[in-house]
């Protein structure tokens, strides 16, 4: 039992580190006030499906805190929560779609895509709220802050959903065992 907890802690740390590293691989963009299309969700989603929501939430929280500490911008304490720890932690909720028993390959892959969609939707709500409250001043004249925040955040999160879902689909179609937790054995 103790070894199992250690293994989960190690996997969580490794996946958080991998997710943070993948956040630097970005696909083109014009987002001057933050946001990018990256592969940050993949390790957190895999961990959340493999080890549970708690591990996924923890890894996401670590990633968000790393992003804040190593280059985040602070406007207000609530903005910090909405732009860093919270939106990355909610990626861990993707594990809510993990099958509790044996599931077929197609069902598992579909659940993973649904998990990514849930995670990105919750991330969107965090960034959207922050955008309305603190970054609405960047909206072009005559454009409502909510509409600006919606368009701004959808412009990178929808492509991120599609790219991450495609990569997860490819990974799981060739190696579904990525979601199977392994026990600590001697």
UniProtKB/TrEMBL annotation:
<dbReference type="GO" id="GO:0015234">
    <property type="term" value="F:thiamine transmembrane transporter activity"/>
</dbReference>
<protein>
    <submittedName>
        <fullName>Putative proton-coupled thiamine transporter YuaJ</fullName>
    </submittedName>
</protein>
<dbReference type="GO" id="GO:0005886">
    <property type="term" value="C:plasma membrane"/>
</dbReference>
<feature type="transmembrane region" description="Helical">
    <location>
        <begin position="7"/>
        <end position="25"/>
    </location>
</feature>
<feature type="transmembrane region" description="Helical">
    <location>
        <begin position="150"/>
        <end position="172"/>
    </location>
</feature>
<feature type="transmembrane region" description="Helical">
    <location>
        <begin position="116"/>
        <end position="138"/>
    </location>
</feature>
<keyword id="KW-0472">Membrane</keyword>
<feature type="transmembrane region" description="Helical">
    <location>
        <begin position="31"/>
        <end position="49"/>
    </location>
</feature>
<feature type="transmembrane region" description="Helical">
    <location>
        <begin position="56"/>
        <end position="74"/>
    </location>
</feature>
<dbReference type="InterPro" id="IPR012651">
    <property type="entry name" value="Thia_Transptr_ThiT"/>
</dbReference>
<keyword id="KW-1133">Transmembrane helix</keyword>
<keyword id="KW-0812">Transmembrane</keyword>
<feature type="transmembrane region" description="Helical">
    <location>
        <begin position="86"/>
        <end position="104"/>
    </location>
</feature>
<dbReference type="Pfam" id="PF09515">
    <property type="entry name" value="Thia_YuaJ"/>
</dbReference>
């Amino acid at each position: 039992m103790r070894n199992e907890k250690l293994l989960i802690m190690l996997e969580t740390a490794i996946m958080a580190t991998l997710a943070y590293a993948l956040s630097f691989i970005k696909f083109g963009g014009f987002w001057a006030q933050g946001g990018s299309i990256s592969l940050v969700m993949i390790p957190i989603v895999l961990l959340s499906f493999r080890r549970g929501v708690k591990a996924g939430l923890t890894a996401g929280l670590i990633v968000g805190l790393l992003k804040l500490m190593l280059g985040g911008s602070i406007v207000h304490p609530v903005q910090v929560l909405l732009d860093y720890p919270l939106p990355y932690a909610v990626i861990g909720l993707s594990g809510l779609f993990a099958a509790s028993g044996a599931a077929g390959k197609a069902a598992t892959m579909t659940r993973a895509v649904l998990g990514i969609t849930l995670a990105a939707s919750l991330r969107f709500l965090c960034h959207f709220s922050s955008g309305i409250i603190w970054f609405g001043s960047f909206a072009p004249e005559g454009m409502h802050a909510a509409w600006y925040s919606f368009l701004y955040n959808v412009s990178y999160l929808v492509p991120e959903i599609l790219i991450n879902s495609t990569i997860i689909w490819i990974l799981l179609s060739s190696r579904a065992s990525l979601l199977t937790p392994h026990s600590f054995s001697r």
